[in-house]
Write a structure and sequence with these properties.
Blueprint lengths: L14 H9 L8 H14 L4 H14 L5 H4 L4 H8 L8 H19 L4 H6 L7 E2 L13 H13 L6 H10 L3 E2 L25
Parallel strand pairs: 1-2
């Protein structure tokens, strides 16, 4: 994308940020495997920068079998040890084990007869929440919706799904549109809904 394009403030600091912002961030995602990947990548970011994750994204896909949950769920101690020696990913034992555990919860959801897409998008009623922020300082780090989502995911058994992580995920997969007013990607898809009183999610 041309450098002269106006982007959200966070996307202006590095070419990888700009590329990701222009092509993916805020675009509604409905592919089960991609949603699973993004949930885990957002969890991997905890305590770090998103740029760190973007730089390692290709290595993550290679290391974790392109986020094939059926394969990941069967990882054993030997595989974990291998991953912890892989410089291409974030070598944190808790985060590595979280991906494995998350894969098993993900498969439980599929085995229940519900797609992961259906499960995840229930939190916004299947719609994109469109916000109208003027600039990045106005954008929250978490909301009542992400609080409720975090609680529901944790209850289900997912790890590294705190409210801030969940909100970043909601933004990333287009469940929330937080492109600022001056950003070229400002779109008006979905409908405006409120999250002040979140329902009890399954």
């Amino acid at each position: 994308m041309p450098k002269e394009l106006e982007r959200c403030g966070w996307a202006q600091s590095h070419p990888l940020h700009a590329e990701y912002h222009d092509a993916e961030w805020g675009v509604p995602q409905h592919d089960d495997q991609m949603l699973f990947e993004m949930l885990n990548l957002e969890g991997a970011q905890a305590g770090l920068s998103w740029l760190t994750v973007l730089k390692k994204r290709a290595s993550y896909r290679e290391a974790f079998d392109n986020f094939d949950a059926a394969k990941i769920a069967n990882y054993d101690d030997q595989k974990v040890a291998q991953l912890l020696h892989n410089e291409g990913i974030i070598r944190n034992r808790l985060k590595v084990n979280a991906v494995i555990g998350n894969a098993r919860v993900y498969l439980d959801i599929l085995h229940s007869g519900q797609s992961f897409n259906q499960y995840i998008w229930q939190f916004t009623g299947g719609k994109t929440i469109i916000n109208h922020w003027k600039n990045m300082p106005e954008v929250p780090a978490k909301t009542p919706l992400s609080d409720a989502m975090s609680k529901a995911l944790a209850k289900r058994g997912f790890k590294f799904v705190g409210s801030t992580i969940c909100y970043a995920f909601l933004q990333a997969v287009g469940m929330v549109d937080d492109h600022t007013a001056d950003c070229w990607r400002r779109k008006h898809y979905g409908v405006k809904v409120t999250a002040d009183s979140a329902p009890n999610f399954r």
